[in-house]
Write a structure and sequence with these properties.
This protein has about 350 residues and is an alpha/beta fold. The chain contains 11 helices and 10 strands. It has an 8-stranded parallel barrel with strand order 1-2-3-4-7-8-9-10, surrounded by 8 helices. Helix 1 links the parallel strand 1 and strand 2. The longest helix is centred in the last third of the chain and has 15 residues. The radius of gyration is 19 Å and the shape is globular. This is 3-keto-5-aminohexanoate cleavage enzyme.
């Protein structure tokens, strides 16, 4: 992305898209019973509350009545339909992991099979986006946290702590290509989860080779443990590689969420918050609900002078429902340099 004179002025930035992640598959309802929804009505109402607070993208996971993360697509269909009925303009983004939470204490925290994840392309009603991970990676969500972040929660249980410490993300090239193809054919946007510059470079190659032909919508996932650490050097490196036509949301975990989001707001990027990412306020004196976190970002953004996107603006910025016919059109629309003649990677000079 290019940062010219005035790039930090709010009038030169897009309205802020706030993604809410309130369903918290990595926690148990007992970790924050006042805020983690369990019944279907509670889960639908949580989406409504997040929307009313200022979030226009809903990162969606589903729980069963016993509080465990649901792996049943019928439950996803039910929640999506309920949210559509109550807040029809909200952008629904299904978490591509489905639920990585361990089934029992001591069980591994792992993502579901390739075939099961492919079935997200068959959800009905269909979501606007499904998150797509690129490149298999370690996902140790405990690594940059402090023990105090887990005090009084299920993560204090050694077996559960170890399950999340040892988690990996399966995202082999063949799976990713097939998943993107199925989502695109269903009219669902791939929302790429990029863990570092390597993930981004792989996404760029998928575009240059014609495997993905749509708007480039990404999260920079700075949660450490095999992914980028949340610091300005990693963020600047990632942003520098990102083309101007892309939509980039910053994402972190534990008490890194707020400072990373503040950097994102200042730079004209977009943000994500919610109990999936952090349970606490910055002084760790109380737990902070997803709605409270959204309200905090709305207030901060307005202090910067940057307005918060409406749902319609969020859809337009992310180009929901848009796909392109050719590789060349995709590269141009996203702000990439064209493929060189006779090749599908890289360039020496932009066409004059």
């Amino acid at each position: 992305m290019n940062f010219l004179d005035g790039s930090l002025y709010p009038e030169n930035q897009q309205p802020l898209i706030i993604t809410a992640a309130p369903y918290a598959p990595g926690w148990l309802p007992s970790d924050f019973p006042e805020d983690i929804p369990v019944t279907m009505e509670q889960q639908i109402q949580k989406a409504v509350d997040c929307y009313n607070a200022g979030a226009t993208v809903l990162h969606l996971h589903v729980r069963e009545l016993d509080g465990k993360g649901s792996k049943r697509l019928s439950k996803f269909n039910e929640l999506i339909a309920g949210v559509r009925a109550r807040v029809p303009e909200m952008v629904i983004q299904v978490g591509g992991s489905i639920s990585f939470a361990p089934e029992t204490e001591g069980a591994a925290a792992k993502w579901l099979s390739d075939d099961t994840r492919h079935m997200l392309a068959e959800l009905d009603p269909k979501p606007d986006q499904v998150t797509v991970t690129i490149n298999t990676s370690q996902m140790n969500v405990t690594e940059h946290a402090e023990l105090a972040d887990f005090k009084g929660t299920s993560r204090e249980i050694p077996a559960i702590f170890t399950a999340y410490k040892e988690m990996t993300v399966p995202a082999q090239p063949g799976w990713a290509e097939e998943h993107i193809r199925r989502l695109s054919e269903a009219g669902i946007q791939s929302a790429f989860q990029c863990y570092n510059i390597n993930s981004f470079e792989s996404v760029e190659r998928l575009i240059r080779r014609g495997i993905y032909k749509g708007p480039l919508v990404m999260n920079w996932v700075a949660i450490s443990g095999g992914m980028d650490a949340p610091n300005i050097y990693n963020l600047a490196n990632f942003v520098r590689a990102t083309p101007d036509g892309a939509v980039l949301t910053v994402e972190s975990s534990v008490r890194n969420v707020l400072p990373v989001n503040m950097m994102g707001i200042a730079l004209g990027l977009h943000v994500r918050c919610g109990t999936e990412d952090c349970l606490w306020n910055q002084t760790r004196t109380k737990k902070m609900s997803t709605v409270e976190q959204i309200g905090q970002l709305v207030r901060i953004s307005r202090e910067f002078g940057r307005e918060v996107a409406t749902a319609q603006q969020a859809r337009e910025i992310s180009k929901i429902g848009v796909f392109y016919d050719t590789v060349e059109e995709t590269l141009l629309a996203n702000g990439f340099a064209p493929n060189r003649n006779g090749g599908n990677q890289g360039f020496l000079r932009k066409a004059g």
